Amino acid sequence: MIPTISDVSTVEEWRSVARDIVKRDSKVNWQATIVDWPGLGYSDRPKMDYDANVMEKFLVDFVNSPDSPLRNSDDLVVFGGGHAATILARAAKKGLVKPRAFAAVAPTWAGPLPIVFGRDSNMETRYGLLRGTMRAPAVGWMMYNMLVSNEKSIQSQYKSHVYSDPENVTPSIVKSRYALTKRTGARYVPAAFLTGLLDPVKSREEFLGLFAGLEGKFPVIVVSSEGAPKRSKAEMEALRGARGVTKFIEVKGALLPQEEYPSVVAEELYRFLQESFES
C-alpha cells in the first residue's frame, strides 16, 4: 500500500484499510506492507532533486530488491492513492514491476499548481523560481512555513479538498500532519510536488495511455471519489470504461477516501481481491 503523494503524505492513511483486510476470514492469507515515499512521511528527507523518475525508481527498487519485505510475495497486489497510483501504472507499463492486481484509489497525475494554472513555458519558469526559493536556506523555510507548514493551512486544505466532510477533519489529524512538516528536510519534496516535478505524465492522453498499457496484464480497479475537486474528478472520470481498467467504482470521499472512509474503501478493495483471487 503506497500513500498518496502530498505535502503531508504518510503511511497512516492506509493503516485502517490494512487492518480491516488482513483481519478478515479469507481463503487467502493476506499480509499488508505500507511504505512511505522518500522525503515524505516517516522516511528520511535528504536534500536531492526529487522528481517522478526518482519516485518510480524507489518503488521499483522497493518491490524488486533481494532484501525487500515483498521478496517472497508471489501474489503481489499494489494499492496506490493519488500520484502513487499513476507512478505504479507507469512502472508496470514498462514491465519494471509485475503485480498480480492493482488498485488505483482517487488517482491523480497533476500537481496542485499545474492542475490549476497549466504548464506553458511561462508557468514552468514561475514554478522553477518558486521551487528554487522553497529549497533555499532561510527564505525557503519562511516560504514553506507560510504555504505548507502551519496548522491553519493544513486544516484548510483538508476541509476544502482532501476530505469531503469538514467535520471529519479532527484536531488530532491536523496536529499529526503538522508534525510531519517539521521534520528535517521536510520542504524538499513538497517543493517538487507543488510545482509539478512529481507528475508522472503531462496530459490526460498520457494518463489514459498508462492504463491502456496494462490491458491484459492483470486486473485493475479504479476507485473514484464522489467529492474530489472538479479538475481531479474529471481525470478520475476519464478512466471510467477506459482500456486497461477492469473495474471502476465510486465511493464517498475526496482525495483521501482511504483515510476518511476506510471501512468503505476496505470493503470495495476486499471484494476486488476476492474476485481476482478467490473466484
Automatic annotation (TrEMBL):
<protein>
    <recommendedName>
        <fullName>AB hydrolase-1 domain-containing protein</fullName>
    </recommendedName>
</protein>
<dbReference type="GO" id="GO:0009507">
    <property type="term" value="C:chloroplast"/>
</dbReference>
<dbReference type="InterPro" id="IPR029058">
    <property type="entry name" value="AB_hydrolase_fold"/>
</dbReference>
